Amino acid sequence: MSHSASLLEALKNVYDRIPATHCKRKTHCCKLLPEGSLVEILWVIRCFQNMTAERRKRLYTKLVAYFFLNPVKITSCPFLEGRDCLVYPERFFGCRAYELWSYEYYQQLSQFNREAKFQLQQQWKRLGITLPQQVVDFNMPYCREVEARMHVTINDRNLTDIWNTVRTLSERMSPWHGIFQQSFFGDLSFLFSTLAFGFNESIQLKYTIVKDILNFKNKNTFKQIIENLPDFEI
User: Fold this and answer.
1) How do residues 182-192 score in pLDDT, each as one tens digit?
2) Per-residue pLDDT tens for 61-104?
């Protein structure tokens, strides 16, 4: 078994420690694409190999569009189609743990996210762009509508230990793990945009698109890019 395949099998075993859940508000939380470690990203990318060419291209397009538009508006996770997740068995830790944290710990996570959003807002301001306040303020509310399918006790410490194990697995893919976290910030949509346009080009295009939309109400650049995406192979 190859090194990457053994890591993906180990990741599956780690995720099996998280109880399966049922939510009355299915997909209500699927507003954002979660950040992921490199090993999680590879597990999700592997799903593409089992998709039809049409679905693969559609998802590829949605990921690239998400990267360019996430400072402009809150849409939904690119993997969401209707009320179904296209990668549900391979979904990220953030999706699995979202409804299992205690209320108190989730508030700490939310505060950390708000601080990160504020820093991002300031960076865009220095570029002459004011992000919509509803995007800056958006935070997923704590969900009380989730039930574990089995009576399994799991707490914040358990979840933290699981996440640390996932991160440790990903670190075994060094130096690529560090490069992915430092350059792409765990953002799969950024990675896919880079595959399409290159790293520096993707950053420049994002700046141009966001500026055109927010400052000049012009979506032409975005539409042209999406309509003329290069072919995607994986």
Assistant:
1) 999 999 999 99
2) 999 999 999 999 998 999 999 889 999 999 999 999 988 999 99
User: Per the domain annotation, does 179 fall within a domain?
Assistant: yes
Would 197 be classed as within a structural domain?
Answer: yes
Residue 18 lies in a domain: yes
Residue 232 lies in a domain: no
Q: What stretches of 127-198 show up as alpha helix (H) in DSSP? A: 133-137, 156-171, 176-184, 188-197
- Which residues are CB-contacts of 12 (< 8 A; sequence separation ≥ 6)? 43
Residue 1: band (very low, low, confident or very high) from pLDDT cuts 50, 70, 90: very low
Domain housing 21? 3-227
Q: How many domains does the chain have?
A: 1
